[in-house]
Amino acid sequence: MKGKQERKKRAAAITALLVLALALSGCGVFHKEEAAQEGGKVDERLRIQESGELTVVGFSQIGSESVWRTANTRSVERALSRENGYFLLSDNARQRQENQIKAIRSYISQRVDYIVFSPIMEEGWDTVLEEAKQAGIPVILMDRMADVDESLYTTWVGTDMTKEGENAARWLEDYLKRKGREEESVNIVILQGTPGSSSELGRTKGFEDVAAAHPNWNILDKRTGDFTTAKGKEVMQQFLRRYQDIDVVVSQNDDMTFGAIEAIEEAGMRTGAGGDIIMISFDAVKNALEMVQSGKIDVDIECNPEQGAYIDDVIGKLERGEKVEKAYVVEEKVFTRENVGEYLDSRSY
Ligand code: GZL
Which residue puts its alpha carbon closest to atom 3 of ligand 1? Predict the structure, then answer.
């Protein structure tokens, strides 16, 4: 297991190689100032690796597509801080898998102690995670899941997205029953997240598995709004042009919900309590919970982004040579007008 002694030995070997490479590079064409700057950053990291005083973590984040994502990034930066004993290398992949793969390869070449990343989609990770495994660098998956052999990652910290989808459908069952509409024909459209992401796959599956027991629930359409407000509004406008009688919108994150509500209101209709369309959302960020309280959103299924502390805890266990679980599922709630008031003030994101 990684320990400070092992790290110091390895860093010394890297330093020797680097000095040799820099010496040899004298015959190459170098821009002095960039080399000096780059060298400075490399020097700092190597000094840290050589001292073994800080745990060096390479973090590849999907992007900054949503309020949730920003909160997730902040939770990692708070937990893996220098004060907590970390040297964090961080990369924003701007929603592109190839950028995540590039970042992971760079962390492998820098011989970081751990790699942490949220896979933008489930497929496409086998090769790069095999490279990390060959390099002996533990990989911690966070938030979304990768569809790879379990031997290619040490653990996963995240949320049960299928359960989130089921929670949404269970709420709808209960709501329709309370309104005496359980036998009525109900027309549903689904705004999906990033195609092939475990959040989209899980929430879609969870909702549809429950919906299958209701022949009177008609899922008219499902399209991706890519977890963004702009795309969510655009797709909702398409739905409104195509379907005259939408009863329910299932929007797989709050950012898309904000855009969908704008589109619905611009079409002269209202969502939520006493409105024309039932609005079901996911994530439960503060601005959305305020809309639950005001009645614009009927229910918000929480997906907890505060995962940094779990990552810190897992790395601590690994550093002490302790066993870790293969998965850590973060707890979550379902927010409605009845219970949101007691949580709203404490919401930090
Ligand atoms: C869910 C996470 C999703 C959020 C979106 O775990 O992957 O990605 O629901 C975010 O807000 O963009």
Answer: 199
